[in-house]
Write a structure and sequence with these properties.
The protein contains 14 helices and 13 strands. Helix 6 links the parallel strand 6 (134-137) and strand 7 (157-159). The chain has 366 residues and is α/β, with parallel strands linked by helices.
Amino acid sequence: MKIALFADAQSIHIQQLAPGLAELGHEVHIVTHKPAPVMGATVERFRVPEPSATNLRGWQGRRSRYLRGFLRRFDVVNIHFLQDWGFRFDPPLIENAVLVATAWGSDIFDPPGETVASTELTEVRRTLLRRAHAVSACGPAFAERVAEYAGVAADHIEVLPFGVDVDLFRPAQRATRHAAPFRIGFFKGFRAVYGPTVLMEAIPLILRRVPGTRFDLVGDGAELHQCQSMASEAGLQSSIEWLPRQPHERLPDLLSRWDLTVVPSIHEAFGVAALESSAAGVPVVASDVCGLRDTVRHGETGLLVPPSNPGALADAIVELLHDGELRERMARAGPKMVGREYDWRDLHARWAEFYDRVREGAVVMT
């Protein structure tokens, strides 16, 4: 099967999905605004051709011809991120083509502190979801939000998770978990949507009850400076290690140092960071929001707390730090849950089977 992904080639999810499809024998081509090498796939920067002697159309006409070429060459075209690539769903453009729309979190939620989607872009996204031949979302909770956003039935949306490389993310080889002083990790990055300032407000509350606790805060983003200022003003600098954004393959080394991972997101469509932590045998304390309800099993692999609530976040963290037996149970349960439900090797086959059903007409949006 020939598959075209209109997507961010730099996204770790695309960099794991595409090679898996290629290993199953499919031809994968990525069209992107952010080129990067992707194993097993060819990558092309999205670029409407300039006028030429054989193509004197205006820009809109050249774009339609450019897009029609992909729809004719590939068995399935899957749009990731519902931005306006130019698929306007006029019948001549999509006739005899198979178009799949995969919604991501920022398509549906307006991340706090960032540009709000225009009315025009919102309508483009909704139209895409309503008229695509099939729609997928990464988890059951998020699929319900996508259905509400688009005004379609939830059972018309295929739940296709992103997965975890369980060979890379696995429990560290050590006899026992850490004893005090404890080390807590955060690696979502410093965007408002990921709740870093909520964590900064929780840290003093944690240190009062569990002195000596250390925090590894990983990543970059617009709120990094504010968080560092908050730490300085509260006298927390000796308790925090600030780490730059890490290559994905380095994250297991960091996780092997941690007793807990914190995911205090305001919105989250899914929560692969939580799954990677669980796969590595690290319990998770996370916000009780949308996709994190799918990826963190409360009381089994971690604890869920109300979002934007530093006190509740601190209470849950302290509860787990004080209860070594519970941490151990979660550390054992996490890899089993991820291996059972989110191993990329199994999910690649699910994605490919979904594309095949769409192509054969078994999945049709109405």
